Give the backbone structure.
Amino acid sequence: MSFRIIVLAKQVPDTRNVGKDAMKEDGTVNRAALPAIFNPEDLNALELALRIKDSIKDAEIQIVTMGPFRAAEIIRESIFRGADGGFLITDRKFAGSDTLATSYALSLAVEKLRPFDLVIAGRQAIDGDTAQVGPQTAEKLNLPQITYTEDVIAVDEKSITLKRRLERGIEIVKTSYPAMITVHSSAPECRPRNVKRMMKFKHARTVHELQDENKDYTELRNRCPYLDIPEWTVADLNADEVRLGLSGSPTKVKKIDNVVLAHKDSVSLTNSESEIEALMKELIDTHIVG
Amino acid sequence: MKNIIVYCEITEEQHVADVSLELLSKGRKLADDIQAKLEAVVIGSDLQHIEKEIYPFGIDTIYLFDDARLFPYRTLPHASIVINLFREITPEIALFGATSVGRDLAPRIASALRCGLTADCTSLEIGSYEDKDKTFDQLLYQIRPAFGGNIIATIVNPETRPQMATVREGVMKKEVFNADYQGQVKKMNLENYLGKDDFQVEILERQIEPQKVNIKGSQIIVAGGYGVGSKENFKLLQELAEVLGGEVGATRAAVDAGFIEHERQIGQTGVTVRPKLYIACGISGAVQHRAGMDQSAKIISINNDVEAPINAIADYVIVGDVMDVVPKMIKMYKKHAK
């Protein structure tokens, strides 16, 4: 393979559809009660990678995701949509990592996949909305970063030209490789699963998934080694443990408050014409409007 | 003496951006709280007299980097400058606007300096923190809604410096500290701060529009949530806003659903507003949205749901369908307007 694209993707709790049992009584988040989904902007990132792969001969896409065992779903989903393979970074020692510690772990995984040409990720994950992990990973890998990417304008083996979405306009930028790209939600939506790939890869599993399912796939996997989704632990990454988890996270949570609304004494009105008339008249008389 | 530094963003018109002026105002207060100097780093091109714009916010030192290659903003040269400057002057606290520039730059710096960074803070305070048997005094409390707005988290960085935070435009109040305040400008030698290959990324083209929508400056805001239902229905809100002489705003859910443009998003990841009158139409009132509007002088909530959280902070609650209530408001306003 001559052109390698690494996509960083994350499985996130669907914070957009938070139900009543999402919070435990002690005020902490009940992650188990939230459905786990592919972080939306990471799907935009995958699509961008697939488009680049479509225009460059012999390009390959590898997914890197960090999370619990079940986060392997992200890799399988990406493979169904056109990625070539993926790696799950999983270890209890990562628990409690803030964005700095997370970017350290991700950067070590990307290092293991050198040589690469592009690292692509969603701008931000919906469970934190910080948009920090992309730039922090780029810094650790000493890569230039093109953030808020909306589209590929031109791409070849030497350089890529991208359109960036800013608050009040756009910017067209060009960079050589290697480089890091983060992708904005206004970028094209990800293509659906490919039926042929689903057939071929439906049994792709990590070691832990195989153990959980308690099935013997030895014969199948000997015949089809591409069905293996590798897991990488702290040891595999040769990581400095002090820089991971809580000890590697400079930000500490001092306290978490449940949201308590400041109550006002509000006046309740029906939508009858007379009550609305009285309200509008009061607003005019008190010079709030008019 | 300790120091607090604000990264001052430069606008297309070669002025210091409002969000930076707001952060300087907040920075001055924090500096007084911990007996620190307030400093600013300004990076751009053609910046003669820029200091006059910002001295009144109470700045003691301006680190000025002025070079044709430094505008428009590019990540690598700005990051090299700020990283190397921070290594030299070791700020206690560093504040950045949560703009497309600040959110691109701040994490890169936090990574290089291995320090903590909190995005999109809605409040900054000074306080102490206890960890096992250690007490840390005069830390920056970085306060933000988290996890879908179900909780408010107070974050601290006890051990690493600077303590870094980004804040959206409009969250802090812009306040002149002293019109005659005079600090000093340090004109910096760029070459001592740049890294190798910092100009690798080329900007081929830019199309930046002047700010069209100014909901931050509007005294009357008619805002719609997902409950408004469609792009078509938002036109009715537009009509009410026009009649009252205000602007239309929206929640993130309404923007994500494509009902209205992103520029009108109010809340933690949008604009913060403090109008005389805020009319919330079909808005349930997630904490991230309230963070952007709860300082409005008068709040009217129109909602089918009597239990909608926003009703608790509303002065008037109209129980009913938005499409039903808004036309009546327009009609009655026209009837009584002088």
Summary: Chain B has two domains: 3-192, 215-336. The domain at 215-336 of chain B is CATH 3.40.50.1220 (Rossmann fold). Chain B touches chain A through 93 residues (CB under 8 Å). Residues 74 and 201 of chain B are 8 Å apart (CA to CA).
